[in-house]
Amino acid sequence: MNLSVVIPLLNEAESLKELHDWIAKVMQSNHFLYEILFIDDGSTDDSWDIITKLAHENPSVKGIRFQRNFGKSQALHAGFKAAKGDVVITMDADLQDNPEEIPELYNTIQEGGFDLVSGWKKKRYDSVLFKNMPSKLFNWAARRTSGVRLNDFNCGLKAYRNEVIKTIEVSGEMHRYIPVLAKSAGFTKIGEQIVQHQARKYGKTKFGMERFINGFLDLITIWFVSKFGRQPMHLFGALGVLMFTIGFGFAIYLGIDKLFINKAGRLITDRPQFFISLTAMIIGTQLFLAGFLGELLTRSKKNETRYTVSEEIKSPKQEKQYTE
């Protein structure tokens, strides 16, 4: 199979039929073998009914329905797990991403040798004050922190080599940083392609200003996990040793001062240096223990499912295999 198009969605009933027809037209005109994976992230409108109808009309359409809203990252995780195409395209369901971009993204991956190509909505039709400017600031911080030279981390239209999405773990709200996760996993051929942005046609955005705050917190988490996630002791252990050494140094100084230099002076416990020393050694010990526990957790980590699937539509061929 050439392509898997993964589309996470929440209450996008109005746009699904139009988006499906558009994608199918592009796929057929380019003679791609494809599948469209709609991941319904707990919609309360008629989205799932429409996906079910589309799957009956087009065997290339598959659907996964979450029991409730678990978030875009979890929806992408489920889509990545089910995707079978050599190249996996992700796009939003609100018609702001243009399916006509898919063939060029596919060719860039296959012929250009890229692991990942991210769309760049260079010209946007969003609010300048509430979306464009915060987005530019957010992207600048992400570039500086991660070292991934992308202009638009948050663009939903991206293309991946299949090995990439089968390797990385997308969780929490980390969908914005899939390129960073890919780089951390060793997929360094990351490119960017200018894509056309279209104004939202139906409904309203599901993301508010809080996404930028959450985005920065996620960015810090990504930085920490990618740098120290596999060896937390390297951070906490080093800080613990430093703090303990400072505290122990103060204790040695107080002991020498009391025993040999200023024997008639104040008791050690009456001096503020004693409490500084004690506090530093306690903090150092705690940091060291935190690093030790982090190492234990890292080694005992198991794959956990972070969502519950209530229904799933498979291709007719797969259903036949299950019944045999």
Automatic annotation (TrEMBL):
Residues 4-165 form the Glycosyltransferase 2-like domain. One of its GO terms (molecular function) is undecaprenyl-phosphate 4-deoxy-4-formamido-L-arabinose transferase activity. GO terms for biological process: lipopolysaccharide biosynthetic process. The chain crosses the membrane at residues 235-254, 274-297. Pfam families: Glycos_transf_2 (PF00535). One of its GO terms (cellular component) is plasma membrane. Keywords: Cell membrane, Glycosyltransferase, Lipopolysaccharide biosynthesis, Membrane, Transferase, Transmembrane, Transmembrane helix. CDD domains: DPM1_like_bac (cd04187). InterPro entries: Glyco_trans_2-like, Glycosyltransferase_2, Nucleotide-diphossugar_trans. PANTHER family: UNDECAPRENYL-PHOSPHATE 4-DEOXY-4-FORMAMIDO-L-ARABINOSE TRANSFERASE, UNDECAPRENYL-PHOSPHATE 4-DEOXY-4-FORMAMIDO-L-ARABINOSE TRANSFERASE-RELATED. This is Glycosyltransferase. It comes from Aggregatimonas sangjinii.
